Amino acid sequence: MNTESLHRWDHEFVWHPFAPMQAFREENAPIIESAEGFHLYDTDGNRYLDGISSLWCNVHGHRVPEIDEAICKQLDRVSHSTLLGLSHPPSIELARELVARVPKGLTKVFYSDSGATAVEVALKMAFQYHCQKKKNAAKRDLFVRLADAYHGDTIGAMSLGGIDLFHKVYGQLLFPTLTLPAPVTYRLPDSHTAESYLQFCDDELERVLRAEHQRIAAFIIEPLVQGAAGILVHPPGYLKRVRELTKELDIPLIADEVAVGFGRTGTLFACEQEHVVPDIMCLAKGLTGGYLPLAATLATDEIYDAFLGEPHEGRTFYHGHTFTGNPLGCAAALASLKLFDEHKLLETIAANGQRLRRNLAPLDEHPHVGEVRRKGIMVGIELVANRETKEPFAPPLRMGHQVTLAARKRGVIIRPLGDVVVLMPAPAMDGDAIDELCAVAIEAIDEAVSHLSQRERSTAKQAGEGRERR
To answer: What average pLDDT does range 229-243 have in this prediction?
Structure first.
């Protein structure tokens, strides 16, 4: 199976996620066949630094001996056994470990397979909780989310999100939600300063929650950072204020820590930084160190107790997945958590965060970088046509993608969110690799914008030819 044959079969048989397939087939992206540490190797032997930690989930690197050994030992016992009516040691041990580490008060663990399923579990859990917590309770059928939110790709998770592209395509399938303005200030509505807009966000938060609290089933938020929205960093205190209001008004708070959890914002869980205890917390991605698909939705005793009763009462939470709590995934997660302690990984993350800040400082004055957003080791570099006016690049130019291609030539894998270049190193990545990631990102941005005039002419020509054909 040489690379040429694999590319041919890939184009013939595989439909890639989030990929414009016509363009994707023309590029012959690397085919990764092995990995070691923080590097990936393709079928031609090229080595790449994994600059997005394999889509934000890898924690300790690839082929980590301790995690490999834990999975192999579990394989010698049982690779899968259902949690429907049965149990197994790894799922029990992992639940105990998670409860010991998450904010105090989250005591019950419900397993699923991915970040989106963890969110689906959370929204169904919140809705059913209200139906069952007491007789004649007011109808709770509205969920609150922030503008530009992303909570996954399944129907319920998309309904809780605010990505325009999803709502444009799938809008008729989604249920309505209440949307609050996101407290970010790079692009402001007319007549607002940064200070006045943040005050407006606070005011809207309180106004909407007080006006609709009797119908609100839950408020969902990515604590501190909206990841897939473009690494949008919230101001200090916003999460705490959300928790204060939701607590006062008896609105369950769902913390979606799928992207921000397991050290990426600087603490093991982002909620810790503002001493917030949500009613429900969603975990995935880094849970297994990036090895295997596993997710967890954690809840308080108050939520859990509403589901207790005799079987005939119908209070059961009717939700589950075939591979819920998979033993291999749980074994990997237990090994990963142990490495957090043994390697004092949060100290490494703090050092890497400062290293990212120093290395990327030259972009603060770059004519085509509007803003560099960072929290912990999560970085978003927003590319713009004009730094002063914040004018975005024309979408057909695909500037973020051009940076990706330029970085790939230099042996680094990154993936943008539109024209936001995302750097998401693994939490355990060493300092030299962080330096390389930043240097290549800057070089790739410079290369992409240096070819700008040529691409703009080509884009304009293609547009003109298209008009002539029409």
So the answer is: 98
